[in-house]
Structure formats: C-alpha cells, structure tokens
C-alpha cells in the first residue's frame, strides 16, 4: 500500500491551487476528565457556595473540601481564556495563614474506573499520562496537586508555577504510569486528581515521584487559603494517555451534560409532571422517571411534591424502586388530594 502526503492540490486545467486544511488524528473521548471546561453546573447554576468541611460536589463532577480555620467559596464563573466560556473560581473569604499538620483544603475530581482501564496502572504495562489545564490566580508562585488511587495509598504530587498574577496560563505535566498499587477498573473510583488550596504537613511531600503515602500537595507550595481575597481560576482540565498535551477536547454541550448525568441528574419539571392515581380510594400516587442515560449505579435522591389538597402520609413522598435506568416516585396521601405533582427531584450516583 502506498501513502501520498501533500499540503495542497493543483487543478490540471486551470492551475488553481487548493491548500488542504490541517487534519489531526486526536482520538475521540481521550480526556479522562468529565466537564473539564466547567460548562455544566446542575446543582447551583453558577451561584457561589461556601466550601463545606465534608467532601461536597459543586460544579458537575468536581467536589471540594475545606478543613482549616479559614473559609473558601467556589462558583462557576464566566472569566475564561479564549475559546472557553466558563471556569471554576475559588476565593478566600477568611484567611488562615498558619495551617496545622492535618488541616487541608482542595478541589478534586474522581474518575470512574472504567475510564482508566486502558492506562493499565498497577501493572508493568502502565501508560504515561499528561495533565493540562488553564489556570489564573491573584497569587504567583509554585502551586501543587496530586494523582491518587481510590485507596489513596499511591500518590504522585505534581507542581506548576503561576508566573503572572491575574493572567491565564496553560500548564502541562507529564507523569509516568504507576506500576504498583491497586487501580480499580470498574464503576468505582479508578483515579483522583487533587488541586491543593492549602495543605498541612501530614498531607504534603516531595513532588515528581510515585509514593506509597496519602499526599495531596508538595511541601512549601502556595496555600491560597492563607491570603484574604485571593482568587484561583481553572478551566480546560484534561488528562490523556501519552507524553504530550493535545488541544482541549471540546464536546457538544448535550454530550457533556449526558456524561455528567451518569453521576447526578436534576431534571426540570415546570408545573406539569403529575403523579398518577393507582388505587380506588384516590390516596396513592406514583410515577416513573426514566433517566436520560444509564447512571453509574442505582441512585439515591430527594423529591418534593405539591398537593391540590390533603396531606402526605408519614415518610412520603419518597423515591423507591430505583435502578440505573429509572426511578419511581410515590406518595401515600391522606384526605382527598385532588392532584400531586413533582416540584423538585435529585438523583445522585456520584463516586
């Protein structure tokens, strides 16, 4: 078989030349991160939230935690580099300039095991990965994060330098695959990527090598939580197989949303989704919600309903009979309810 390579084609009759466009061979869905462009925020719609002391999801697929004497907020922001529309913004609202050994603050995405299986981590065939992202901060200096397995007994601390304040910069980090440890390849957590906003000494260590310790940051790296009103923005986060970074993989909005809904689904009902009467005395209502796509696992969730009259029996309304593809909502009513409709519903199958 012969291969012809050319940059342009010339017409045999007119002599006109056509320059061929650049064609890339980047594999589709190469990015292990979901919602790396921060465009989906089902829970909060861009509203700022104070980061809780327990792991809590905010922008889709990203959770955060703050356990210091300071305080941080997180929100989906429209400050972004060229070609992007959104970013994640972290702001220090109460500073803690002296962290104790176990205090910590971070942002993390948990990556499902199915999505890292091709990397063969934990074997002699482990593949190299490259992390890339756009970052901007009011602070300059050396910042850090880490890659970990689910057991958090294998970690690789990485560093990146912010050179100019309040300026978007793209960072790339290449990491040789880990040949040790257990890296799950099912529908549980396969890999985690942390970005430190402030880390005590217990969870800090040397950067640039795999470790058997639970490390989230490098010793001496910049702590955002130490400076009042400091800001940190990130978007375009990508993790891919290989030793170089490719351009960020933009997905159509609907595709990105469906991928997020594998883990969390918050439909909008308006005023028209009614529960159906299924008994003769007009007291029991039920409806089935078909998920837009198969969720990672049978979800848990919350539901509220509105009644025409009457009251809910104890423990109702409730979500019951859930599986990966559908969930049932039921309400056992007292009195003549007239109607019952869903007001809010959330279904959670997060890692």
For the structure shown, list the relevant keywords.
40% strand; 6-stranded antiparallel beta sheet; 351 residues; Jelly Rolls; 1 helix; 2% helix; 2 domains; 7-stranded antiparallel beta sheet; mainly beta; 25 strands; Immunoglobulin-like
Task: Give a topology summary.
Blueprint (H helix, E strand, L loop, with lengths): L7 E3 L6 E3 L29 E2 L5 E2 L5 E5 L3 E7 L9 E8 L9 E9 L16 E9 L3 E8 L6 E8 L6 E7 L13 E11 L4 E2 L4 E2 L5 E2 L12 E11 L11 H8 L3 E2 L10 E2 L6 E7 L9 E8 L3 E2 L5 E3 L5 E9 L5 E9 L3
Parallel strand pairs: 14-16
Antiparallel strand pairs: 1-2, 3-6, 4-5, 5-8, 6-7, 7-17, 8-13, 9-12, 9-17, 10-11, 10-13, 11-15, 18-25, 19-20, 20-24, 21-25, 22-24, 23-24
Description:
- The chain is mainly β and 351 residues long.
- The chain folds into two domains: 212 residues, Sandwich (Jelly Rolls); 85 residues, Sandwich (Immunoglobulin-like).
- It has one helix and 25 strands.
- It has a seven-stranded antiparallel β-sheet with strand order 4-5-8-13-10-11-15, with no helix packed on it.
- The model has no long low-confidence stretch (mean pLDDT 92).
């Amino acid at each position: 078989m012969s291969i012809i390579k050319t940059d342009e084609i010339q017409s045999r009759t007119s002599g006109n030349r056509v320059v061929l466009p650049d064609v890339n061979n980047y594999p589709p869905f190469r990015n292990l991160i979901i919602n790396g462009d921060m465009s989906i925020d089902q829970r909060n719609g861009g509203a700022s939230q104070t980061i809780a002391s327990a792991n809590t999801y905010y922008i889709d697929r990203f959770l955060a935690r703050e356990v210091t004497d300071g305080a941080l907020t997180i929100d989906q922001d429209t400050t972004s580099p060229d070609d992007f529309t959104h970013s994640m913004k972290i702001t220090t609202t109460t500073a803690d300039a002296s962290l104790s050994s176990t205090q910590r603050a971070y942002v993390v995405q948990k990556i499902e095991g199915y999505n890292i299986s091709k990397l063969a981590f934990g074997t002699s065939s482990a593949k190299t990965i490259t992390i890339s992202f756009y970052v901007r901060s009011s602070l300059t200096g050396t910042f850090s994060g880490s890659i970990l397995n689910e057991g958090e007994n294998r970690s690789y601390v990485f560093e990146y330098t912010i050179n100019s304040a309040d300026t978007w910069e793209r960072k790339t980090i290449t990491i040789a695959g880990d040949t040790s440890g257990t890296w799950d390849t099912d529908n549980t957590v396969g890999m985690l990527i942390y970005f430190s906003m402030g880390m005590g000494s217990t969870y800090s260590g040397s950067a640039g090598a795999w470790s058997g310790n639970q490390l989230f940051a490098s010793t001496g790296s910049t702590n955002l939580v130490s400076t009042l009103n400091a800001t940190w923005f990130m978007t375009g986060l990508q993790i891919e197989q290989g030793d170089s970074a490719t351009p960020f993989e933009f997905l159509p909005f609907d595709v990105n949303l469906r991928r997020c809904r594998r883990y969390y689904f918050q439909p909008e009902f308006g005023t028209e989704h009614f529960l159906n009467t299924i008994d003769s005395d007009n007291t029991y209502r039920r409806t089935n919600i078909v998920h837009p796509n198969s969720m990672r696992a049978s979800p848990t969730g919350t539901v509220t309903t509105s009644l025409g009259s009457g009251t809910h029996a104890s423990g109702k309304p409730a979500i019951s009979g859930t599986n990966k593809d559908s969930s049932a909502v039921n309400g056992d009513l007292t009195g003549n309810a007239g109607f019952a409709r869903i007001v809010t519903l959330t279904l959670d199958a997060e890692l």
